[in-house]
Amino acid sequence: MKTKEIISLKLIASLLFLITGQAISAQSYLGFLEDNYNGVHGVISNPANIADSRLKLDINLIGISGFLGNNYLSTSLGDMFRDPGKAFDEAETTPKSENFIAANLDILGPSVMISLSEKHSVSLYTRGRIFTNIDDIDGSTIDKEGGFNENEDFSIDEGDLSGELNLWTEIGASYARVLMDHNEHFLKGGVTLKYLSGIHHTYLNGSEITIDYNSTDQTVATNGILTYGYDVGGEEGFENTFSNFGQSTGLGADLGFVYEWRPNHEKQKLVDLDGKKVSNRGINKYKLKFGLSITDIGSINNKGGEQQTYDLNNNQSIDNFDGDDLEDALKNNFSTVNGPQESSKTGLPTAFHGNVDWNIHSKFYLNLNSDFSLRKKNSLNTHHIQNQVSLSPRLETAWLSIYSPISLMQDIGFRWGAGLRAGPFYVGSGSILTSLFDQGKSLDIYAGLKVPVYHSKLRDKDGDGLKNSIDNCPETPGPIENQGCPWPDTDQDGLLDKDDNCPNEAGPTENTGCPWPDTDGDGVLDKDDKCPKTAGNLEHDGCPDSDGDGIIDIEDRCPQNPGKKEHKGCPDIDGDTLVDIDDQCPELAGPVYNNGCPEVTQEVQKQLNNYAKTILFDTGKATIKSESVAVMVDIIQILNEYPSAKFTVEGHTDSVGSSSSNQRLSEARANSVLDFLINEGISADRLRAVGFGEEKPITTNATKLGRKQNRRVEINLIK
């Protein structure tokens, strides 16, 4: 057991070269997933893709996509075909502290996509997936091609590493629908739910792992922590791993949205004979398409598996090192920190995908696609994708598509591939051209067979909006109302029968094809008659002038009373420039701002109050004395001269007696005057009575004369 082969195979290989896995599911079928005629394959990257699909039905019989990549070794597929041994011997290597190896096999089994209606689509698929990789291995270790010599000291500082191998199957159901169809703006969304069944899993996760070999005493010192998990069937032999089928299960989901900009939407929709719009589902209608999705949300609960964490801190002789495989080496040489316990969940490779598709012209497209991992690298038994951006020019028709994706993949670099879809067959690779003509770090290929059933393309040869199958004149444009045929012009007056109110009698267009009538029989045709339903004369364009003031009735505000043109045919009796119908005082001249009524001046106001102050009442009462009637008549005459003015009748007393009795007396006297005025013809809405009692004296109440002056009535203008 002291040979260099034993050291290399038992120690180095056992600790470092466990087959592990990395998921790059959305990077399968590169180029084909952007094809608008990919059918059920569309749900792999974005479940919204199948809504408003170009296919009525798509049945996938079998599809296989494989990927192998690393950032350590570069080789050419052409060199491998010519001389495989020499190709690997002369391959360029790039040793790093974080080298990785990744492999992926994606098998899409019997699957179906059905377009239920213009808005709704569903799919059901079966899928098998295998992912394996080693992450963060030290490239200098890989460079030791023949192992390590037992007569020489050596050290390995591996640091942190991780890896996982997972094989599972999926049964997925997708639903997608159109969310918005607003002319040039079109939005659809979709979701996939999938049942996961784990078949095999193996994983490890190590930190601060070092190996030091002392050739003098032939001892190996190891350090670090290593977590190792596996399913029992897998440890007994990969051929027995399917005995665990159905034990490990889980649920997953994908979610996506697609927006399409359709600037030519009117030309892309036809109509039926009822005028209802019919979408031409057999053609692509967008100029630009934007897709966003998150895939592989979920995990698998692993059953029947075992996980243990080992402390690798040990120093022992090579003679005592025992173990034919990794499990034996760990159990026989190192102590357990944690475990055994049930295996950890398998985390799906959750990823975000962005996609932009540009219809350059007719059948030519340019696609920009990006895939970004939402999982952290080195998480325990959790997959993650390699971030990637690709640009794919594409020639696309219903039965044939040709594309050539150019991509940059994280840690792998430039890749150039090609693909083809011809009816039921599809084949391609995201790196075939790079691999053939230059040294590359990855190789992938996919191929498959399906049964596509396309939507028919609706034809409209004459471009009148009616599809040929229901167009009575398919080669001559015509309106829908006439079954796609042009309208006739029976009377040859230049107006089509559909717009001609008199299709058998020629007439001018402005009268919708009919001769002009003279409805009121005044000798002026309706087209020239400003009053077609009222007889008039030619001088006034067919309109009457009832009052003979030279202004026709329809423009005369006072058609029965002659007036001046500047007054729009109305008289102004008082000559105050305000016509009588707008003048509140048509027989009394007054300014416009006072509605034609005379304005109460300060002199008039003073005169009113001089009269009002002389109104006499019975002592202590509100009864107006008979000798004051003459004064009241004078007041009424003044008020009648200003019919639009409004006044307050105010009652005042002296300070003799209580203030409350004085208040009541003042109110009573004010109301007494108000009632007298109303009874004599003054409008009630022009007057308001108010009593102020002894609150507003105009002189002293200390003398008899002063008290007499304070006992008064005032009539004041309400401004």
TrEMBL record:
GO terms for biological process: cell adhesion. This is Flagellar motor protein MotB. It is found in: Cell outer membrane. PANTHER family: LIPOPROTEIN YIAD-RELATED, STATOR ELEMENT OF FLAGELLAR MOTOR COMPLEX. Residues 604-719 form the OmpA-like domain. GO terms for cellular component: cell outer membrane. Keywords: Cell outer membrane, Cell projection, Cilium, Flagellum, Membrane, Signal. The keyword NAD does not apply. Residues 524-543 have a biased composition (Basic and acidic residues). Residues 476-552 are annotated as: Disordered. The lineage of its organism: Bacteria, Pseudomonadati, Bacteroidota, Flavobacteriia, Flavobacteriales. One of its GO terms (molecular function) is calcium ion binding. The keyword Electron transport does not apply.
